[in-house]
Design a protein that fits this description.
Distance between the termini: 100 Å
Structural class: mainly alpha
Shape: elongated
Number of helices: 7
Number of strands: 6
Strand order of the largest sheet: 1-2
CATH superfamily of one domain: Cytochrome c-like domain
Helix content: 40-55%
Length: 199
């Protein structure tokens, strides 16, 4: 201890053989505490009382909205022909198959062979290996359903874009379309909401 430092002051009482120091806290420590208190009060007032600035929840909402807008912009220009080309690319098809076959993903409802059947038992999903499509059979129609889900989520597929992301959704669609031919005769399923209504 340097010669100019005062001797430490000890409190009189002893507890368990230990005496406590009775020293003034250093100024840097006190200023840090005071600044933290002032900052906390200012943040509470600005975020929660005056509505100034963005809270963490607002920032997260803005971030998710921006990501979604970016994904929509990326996919807005994609065409059926491009998706058909992706379905002929072995790397994209294999990547899509890996995602499709992941337990809890597409295979759970549509089956490993895309027939929506396993050992003669009907699965909740629709077959993806036939030529009847409930929500349109163009590749962009299929991509829209994988991304955004069925129009009636209580009776159809949930949206997968937030789980898989744009790239993996595109790969899954490429895998599905690899089981089809570009010039095959695609029909709307009888229960399709897009089917023309009888007069």
């Amino acid at each position: 201890m340097p010669a100019n430092d005062p001797e430490p002051i000890l409190r009189d009482h002893v507890y368990d053989g230990i005496q406590e120091y009775d020293q003034k806290l250093p100024n840097w420590w006190l200023f840090t505490l005071y600044i933290a208190i002032v900052f906390s009060i200012a943040a509470w007032l600005s975020y929660y009382q005056l509505g100034i600035g963005m809270s963490d929840e607002d920032r997260m909402d803005a971030f998710i909205t921006a990501r979604q807008a970016n994904a929509d912009k990326k996919l807005a220009g994609i065409t059926d022909d491009e998706l058909w080309q992706f379905s002929r690319d072995p790397r994209m098809v294999e990547a899509g198959k890996a995602t499709y076959m992941t337990p809890g993903m597409c295979v759970t409802c549509h089956g490993p062979d895309l027939s929506a059947m396993v050992s003669g038992v009907k699965l909740p999903g629709l077959p993806l290996n036939d030529t009847q499509w409930k929500h349109g059979g163009k590749p962009t129609d299929i991509m829209r359903i994988v991304r955004k889900g069925a129009p009636d989520l209580t009776k159809g597929m949930a949206p997968w874009e937030s789980v898989l992301g744009v790239r993996r959704v595109t790969e899954v669609v490429a895998f599905i379309m690899s089981h089809h031919k570009q010039d095959e005769d695609v029909r709307l399923a009888p229960d399709s909401p897009l089917a023309p209504k009888a007069p």
